[in-house]
Amino acid sequence: MFNWRRQPAAPGPTVLDETYLERLEKHLGESILREILSDGLLELSDRLARVQELAVSGNSAELVRLVHDLSGMAGHLGLTQLGHLSVDAERALRQEATDLQSVAEPLQEAAPRALAALKHFLDASAHD
């Protein structure tokens, strides 16, 4: 069973919903959850890097699809804050926002915290 040390709650939306991950672990088991989170961490990192590329290139159609995928992926990984920001970005893009870089910026700012929280969760549980 995962035995990690909970991080102190920060103001604003929760970066990582550890309660959700605990429930998921009870349902799936530790090894399956670890595999899902490890694979998700790699894929999420790649997709977040792609957000910036698409914003710079001005490809709004592909960016809206990617951001939509990110919102679902973040939810499945327990990354609450990133999920909320992805939904906000998708909404802005569907309302035909023209400054794609400003739409992508909150995602880029939140990405390191989200990835670090997920990595910390995996690392902490591996040492227990």
Cα-atom radius of gyration = 15 Å
Number of contiguous helices: 5
The number of strands is 0
Strand content: under 5%
Classify the helix fraction into a percent range: over 70%
Unreliable sequence segments: 1-10
Please write the string of helix (H) and strand (E) elements.
HHHHH
Instruction: Name the overall outline.
Output: elongated
Mean pLDDT: 89
The protein's oligomeric status is single chain
Cα separation of the termini: 9 Å
Structural class: mainly alpha
Largest sheet: none
What does this structure look like?
- This protein has helices spanning 18-28, 30-57, 60-76, 80-94, 100-126.
- With 128 residues, the chain is mainly alpha-helical.
- Helix 4 (80-94) runs antiparallel to helix 5.
- The protein is elongated.
Layout: helices, strands, pairs:
Blueprint: H1 18-28, H2 30-57, H3 60-76, H4 80-94, H5 100-126
Helix pairs in contact: 1-2, 2-3, 2-5, 3-4, 4-5
Short description:
The protein has helices spanning 18-28, 30-57, 60-76, 80-94, 100-126. The chain is mainly α and 128 residues long. The termini are close together.
Main attributes of the structure:
single chain, 128 residues, mainly alpha, elongated, disordered N terminus
